[in-house]
Amino acid sequence: MSEVQAKLVLGDCREVLKTLKDDSIDLIFTSPPYADSRANTYGGIKPDEYVEWFLPTTKELLRVLKPTGTFVLNIKEKVVNGERHTYVIELILEMRRQGWLWTEEFIWHKKNSYPGKWPNRFRDSWERLLQFNKAHKFHMYQEEVMVPMGDWAERRLKNLSETDKVRDPSKVGSGFGKRIANWIGREKAYPTNVLYLATETKNRNHSAVFPEDLPEWFIRLFTKPGDWVLDPFMGSGTTNRVAQKMGRNSIGIEILPEYFEVAQKDVKPAKQLPATQLALMEKKGKYAATKSK
Ligand SMILES: C[S@@+](CC[C@H](N)C(=O)[O-])C[C@H]1O[C@@H](n2cnc3c(N)ncnc32)[C@H](O)[C@@H]1O
What we know:
- The longest helix has 15 residues, at 50-64.
- The strands form four sheets. This protein has a nine-stranded mixed beta sheet with strand order 12-6-7-3-2-13-14-1-15. The protein has a two-stranded antiparallel ribbon with strand order 4-5.
- A hairpin with a 2-residue loop joins β4 (79-80) and β5.
- It is built from ten helices and 15 strands.
- The chain is of the alpha/beta class.
- It folds into two domains: 2-148 and 190-282, Vaccinia Virus protein VP39 (Rossmann fold, 3-Layer(aba) Sandwich), CATH 3.40.50; 150-185, no CATH class.
């Protein structure tokens, strides 16, 4: 048996984060309150003031994250006066000035977004997952999130061009190249940076719950069992619940007592996980080359 810890704290993350140790967290995964949009539930922050409001928190997050760790921020700018507000873009620039590296942007494509009609745009079907790091070298367990090759392999690999058979140097001078032929006979490929997931439909007494698959994918990619995961805007505790199931220790901070109580119901302060379960979770999802037909 191995013990997995979860520390859930009721309070304002801007204060609570100050009590956490430097360089102690492996993954920060969170969805902060959206500017203005949920004013009726937990007091919105005005879009024009969003960056100023958020920066003291990201400063603390930078301090508590391990140099090998990753911060994934789920966010989407809202529409103000008929155009997209720029606070997310401004936030990225300010966070870079604070010392963060903006490593990557993933897209969460929400497969079941509500139908609707707007005069000047279509329904919004995606959100950003911004990946920030403290250092260029960080832990990333890419084999854990590999996907089946699918019929892409059948179609693309049947008709290989001459460039496909040799290493094709990057046209943008990034120094990276690809040799498509390397993938013949493989069953699995690395995924793209677009995640196709449904939105959460289960009612968890919270208006902005994300699906469990979302934190699960990033926890798998950036942590190992026994690592520490932090969600400073915990809400109903989705990140912590998933982290616990996956054998990761976690910290969650929530300012509103009603959401804190929801989280507390199914995240236990210490949970015994059978060693067999942990062993399964630790098993490398390494792909093996199979013989081509
Ligand atoms: C978008 S929701 C998170 C939902 C969560 N991902 C889930 O699956 O339930 C943001 C949460 O942050 C909380 N919050 C807002 N300001 C906060 C603060 N300063 N400190 C801690 N929590 C805060 C809100 O009450 C809300 O529950």
